[in-house]
Every structure is written in C-alpha cells, then in structure tokens.
Amino acid sequence: GRKTFVDLVRRVAENVSIPFTVGGGINHVADVETLLDAGADKISINSAALRNPDLIDDIASRFGRQVCVTAIDARFDNGEWICYLNGGRVPTSRRLLEWAHEAQERGAGEILFTSMNHDGVKTGFACEALAELADNLEIPIIASGGAGNCEHFRDVFTIGKADAALAASIFHFNEVPIAQLKTYLKENNIIIRQ
User: How far apart are CA 69 and CA 140, in angstroms?
Assistant: First the structure.
C-alpha cells in the first residue's frame, strides 16, 4: 500500500545522489508533503491534475513550482493531440497545447509529455509536437515515448527542442548504453550533464 510506496521512496533517496521525481497516485497536497519528506526532489501529477487542475496551483504555492512536474499523456487522433487519463487509456476533451499552457499558468515547473503514439515503438520521439510545446511555453519540456537509438536523442534536442528526454527499455536491456549515448551527444554538440 501507500506506506510501502513511501518506504521505497525513502530507500531510493538514501541510495542515490541524483535528484529524482516521484509520480503515481498523488491526489492531495498532503501526498506531496509525505513524498518530499521521504526524500523525493519533485513530484509528477497526471490524471489528478486533469481531474482537479487546482492541484497544480496548490502544490506550486505551497512547495514552489520547481517541485511540480505536470505529466501529460496524449495521442494524435484525427489531426489533433488529445490528452488521456489513466495511463493513456481514457480520452478527455483537452488538447495537448492548451492543457500544457494552462498547467504552466497554474504553476507547473515542467511538462513531461508522453506521446502514446510513439511510446514503446522505438521509432523516435514526437519531435513536431515537442517543438510546438517548446515554442509556446516558457517552462522546460521533458520528452517521453519513442527512444530507440542515439539519433532519436539527437533529434529530440535539435528538432524537438526538448530540455530533457527519457527512455526506459533501451536502457534496461542495454540496447543503448548510457555512456555511449552521452559520448554520441557530445560529439553532436549537444550539451549534457556529466
């Protein structure tokens, strides 16, 4: 249950020296306080923010906007990007750009955008949508969904104008070793943290 999750966050905080973000099941400001106390640096809210946008305002005013990452799962349907709830399973009436802009205005410090069309297929990030977000927002954009090789990361930073990009399975299965990716990005004049 919840206690086990908080214990896990505490154990991670004790064992890693890099900042980390926690998401999943955060519905109230009290949840945020508990996770920050356990050692999380930032929290990520997705469905809870869509259902209750005031949650963004509440978290930002209480803890600072740098703590609040608003995650958005969207799918390109019939020529437009539609936001989804519940891990990308339930469509909403919200459009990606207008919801991301509202989240920024309410106090989100970052947008984590996952393209449901690209997630898991390893054919590259949704660079066009990412660039549109970057051009229209002032806060950092984190790209998610689509990473399959080093070139995809180069493209997400150059064409997609993302501030950060994440991947899961390619690292889990060592398809793209992190050290190799860092070297490749440096060779392509993309500034990365050491």
Answer: 10
Taking only the tens place, the pLDDT of each residue in 11-51 is: 999 999 999 999 998 999 999 999 999 999 999 999 999 99
> Whole-angstrom Cα distance, residue 147 to residue 140?
19
Phi, psi angle pair for 70, to nearest 5°: -100, 115
Q: At what angle do helices 96-106 and 54-63 cross, to 10 degrees?
A: 40
Q: Rounded to two decimals, what is the model's pTM?
A: 0.95
User: How would you class 42 by CB atoms within 10 Å of its CB: exposed for 0-12, middle for 13-18, buried for 19 or more?
Assistant: buried
Judged by DSSP in three states, 117 sits in: coil
CA contacts within 13 A on the Cβ side of 85: 12
Token readout for 11 is 């154990």
Provide the 10 A C-beta neighbour count for residue 71.
22
CA distances in angstroms from 154 to 8, 91, 99, 130, 159, listed in the order given: 33, 31, 27, 13, 8
Closest CA to 64 of 72, 56, 73: 56
- Strand 90-95 relative to strand 110-115, pairing: unpaired
**To which residue do tokens 């356990």 refer?**
38
**Torsion sign (Cα): 132, 136, 137, 138:** positive
- Tokens in use for 86? 């519940």
Amino acid identity, position 119: D
